[in-house]
Amino acid sequence: MNRFVFHVRIISYLCSMKTKASHIAQYRLFALLTILTLCASLQVTAQNTERRPNNTTYFSTNELPDPTVYLPVPPDTASTLFVGDFMRWIWGKSVRSTERGRQASWESLYGVRRMATVYGDAMNMKITEEDTPAIWRLLQRVGETGNKATGKAKRKYMRVRPFARMNEHVWGEFDNEWDLRHNGSYPSGHTGFGWSTALALAEMAPEYQDTILRRGYEYGDSRVIVGAHWQSDVDAGRLAASAAFARLHTSTEYSEDLENARAEYRRIKGIKAQATSAGYPHIEHIIDSPADTASYHYYGDVAYYWQAKSERNTLRGEEAVTDTACTINYFLQTYGACTNIPIDITSTPDIAAYVTYVFDELCNACSQSKSTGFRLRPFVRMGEHSALPEKDERYSKSSSYPSSHSIIGWGIALALVEVMPDCQDAILKRGYEYGRSRTILGFHFKSDVQAGRLVSSYTLARLHNEPDFRQFLTAAQKEYKDASGPTPED
Fold this sequence. Notes:
64% of the residues lie in helices and 0% in strands. By secondary structure, it is an all-alpha fold. It folds into 3 domains: 46 residues, no CATH class; 217 residues, Vanadium-containing Chloroperoxidase, domain 1 (Up-down Bundle), CATH 1.20.144.10; 179 residues, Vanadium-containing Chloroperoxidase, domain 1 (Up-down Bundle), CATH 1.20.144.10.
């Protein structure tokens, strides 16, 4: 029973009570005032959250990757891993009175209307349902799919939100506090909506990819500023959105909507139909620089370093050592263990060729991202040896940020989801753990790994504009379908 129905029944009961005549007028006056208050409350709620039309997603929750499988449990407040969330909460409160804080409050409005303004500004154009119906439709359907991708984890963990945990009020202008208190914090649904939309628009409009992706990144961090989400909720929301975005590319409806939106965008912008040469997005324009040791954000990385280090002398630590391999054959082997058929150069040459192409492109993305600066590796910063001392000298001379292994490992996982969506959860879990291995060994901070996963997600979005990539993908999908046999849908 929703709140409105509950209150109406109470009011009806009060109005029908048989009691003293002197009290009837009071009851009826109370009922009238309560109804007026409820109507005003419902009007505010309608303004703060857009009504979500039915059938606006490309996949149901059960068809999308399950974040309870491939993502970790959210940090408990008694865990040292909570340090990063706590410090980011302090940061969020500290910027509320600034222009960035006002932006975060304004961005608390959920839905396609706010996304249309956010990304319309990023692309220097006006997006409305009347003037740009194809782009509007893409925004709505992709965003709602990205939000839906967080649903299973939200319901399973029902994590308490920062403002509730800290006994405060949510600071977002358009946030409905009652709804947020009864909706899980992990992962962030707003972030799922915003980041999936950013990826789709970067694919549609590569000329504006850096500004689009930057606004999508900021939209997630805005949830930390207003106290609606912890940073780990936002990080998980971005990964859930990336996984959902990979799954989107198995939908013919998404392909049709994307092409219609792209044609509309090019017509408005006067862009010729042939592919542009925008190159890949630039990490320094999209993601915040890694935390300096003088910043309190750094404490989250340190806490995670010590927790991950404790796993070195375990079976998981042994797996981390194995994960130092970063070759085509290793990826075919490790992801092949997650699929229904053997994957190798001999048995599945088209899938192997596809993985090879993606691997090479992700390596190019690694080179571009690494060239933006130099960050000391965790084992160097801590004055220790890594889990593999024989590799210390080589790794101490290269930058920790972002993690190249994470770019390649998560990127190949996303690429394989497009080929074999029936194995998506196992593939994504292996891809996530491959990146986490880098923190266990002491070669990367957690923020290096997280940044690497974001790089791979937007690199894949850009790759879909390349004819060679699409040819490799189509061939791999056909080979997998032929090898695995007909599906129930067939």
